[in-house]
Specification:
Blueprint lengths: L1 H23 L14 H12 L11 H4 L46 H10 L8 H9 L2 H11 L6 H13 L7 H6 L8 H12 L16 E3 L16 H4 L7 E3 L21 H13 L5 H12 L29
Antiparallel strand pairs: 1-2
């Protein structure tokens, strides 16, 4: 019996090695759960992510534009900001954003923590300030207590706020997609059409930019390599950060994880469907016109990248105190 268990254990080990090797031979790798998290910080960050009091209006939260019930985005061309302002660019998904090389389409934030502070003080988004946001949180006794428990400090500052939000966003990964199961050896996880779509995705050259764990998000590329792209947005891309003319219209390659849920597509939100997006990217980036059958196969493959969506209990936010600065929802 003992020998049998040893043999079975060895077989399982060798099988696992084979599966891991098979997955490593592909340009896309399975999503892994976060290596380590601070549970208390995650819980605090979750509250802050859903708390609209970080905005001047008291109406807009992180979840407004990165809705976790809608693939981590808002499914509109450009987001709605303070005083109903139209945003300049499509909101990227927050799901798997911890896997990105940088944050925002132009990469101006190096990490999630740097990104979290941007919208709070942006007059076109949450339209508050870091000082006002900290004042609001510092006036709420339950928040003061929770920040002290998590950070061990008596005074709240914006670094603690952004660190907590970033820690929560680290858990917003989506493992367990059918494609990941296929990578890990479950060969019946994909249909024939879906597998053909993946082979075409590789052979056509899509994987040159869309690769790795996030199937993108790890490089900046010019939008319109073969043909110029007529954007619906005035955003200039990476050049706004670097100042280099060579970086004009270079944008962070978006992740294709959960892409079925994150329409509309591109930095300007101009493509409403995956079919349209695949056609445009084929022509502009690869110089290739996919047939209707080829397009349908690639779209079928892309839909297998939808993973397990984050599931958790919505936070109950602590009530404001008499001293809490009141929101200004109508721009007074």
């Amino acid at each position: 019996m003992k020998q049998t268990k040893t043999i079975l254990a060895l077989a399982a080990f060798l099988s696992a090695i084979g599966i891991a090797k098979a997955a490593s031979d592909e340009p896309i790798s399975p999503i892994k759960p976060p290596a380590s998290i601070n549970v208390g910080m995650v819980e605090l960050g979750k509250k802050l992510y859903f708390d609209p009091r970080l905005s001047k209006s008291g109406f807009i939260s992180c979840n407004s534009c990165h809705n976790l019930s809608m693939g981590g985005t808002d499914n509109i061309q450009t987001s709605i900001g303070d005083k109903w302002q139209q945003g300049p660019i499509n909101a990227p998904t927050v799901l798997n954003s911890s896997l990105n090389i940088a944050q925002f389409w132009d990469g101006r934030a190096a990490d999630l923590r740097a990104q979290a502070g941007g919208p709070i003080a942006n007059p076109g988004e949450m339209a508050s300030s870091h000082t006002l946001a900290v004042d609001v949180l510092s006036s709420i006794p339950d928040y003061v207590y929770e920040f002290r428990q998590v950070f061990g400090k008596d005074k709240i500052d914006i670094e603690q706020v952004t660190t907590a939000i970033a820690e929560f966003e680290k858990i917003l990964v989506t493992p367990g997609s059918r494609f990941d199961l296929w990578l890990l050896g479950k060969k019946d996880a994909l249909s024939r059409q879906e597998e053909e779509g993946y082979q075409l995705f590789k052979n056509a050259g899509c994987v040159a930019c869309h690769n790795g764990e996030a199937v993108g998000g790890n490089s900046f590329q010019k939008m319109g390599l073969v043909e110029p792209y007529k954007a619906a947005s005035g955003a200039e891309g990476r050049s706004a950060v670097t100042g280099a003319d060579a970086d004009r219209f270079n944008f962070k390659v978006p992740t294709l994880r959960n892409v079925e849920l994150t329409y509309p597509y591109f930095h300007d939100g101009a493509a409403n469907t995956l079919t349209e997006a695949v056609d445009t990217m084929g022509r502009l980036q690869l110089g290739r016109k996919f047939t209707r059958t080829e397009n349908a196969s690639i779209v079928a493959f892309l839909k297998t990248l939808t993973g397990e969506q984050p599931r958790f209990q919505l936070p109950i936010l602590p009530p404001s105190s008499d001293q809490t600065p009141r929101p200004l929802p109508f721009g007074k």
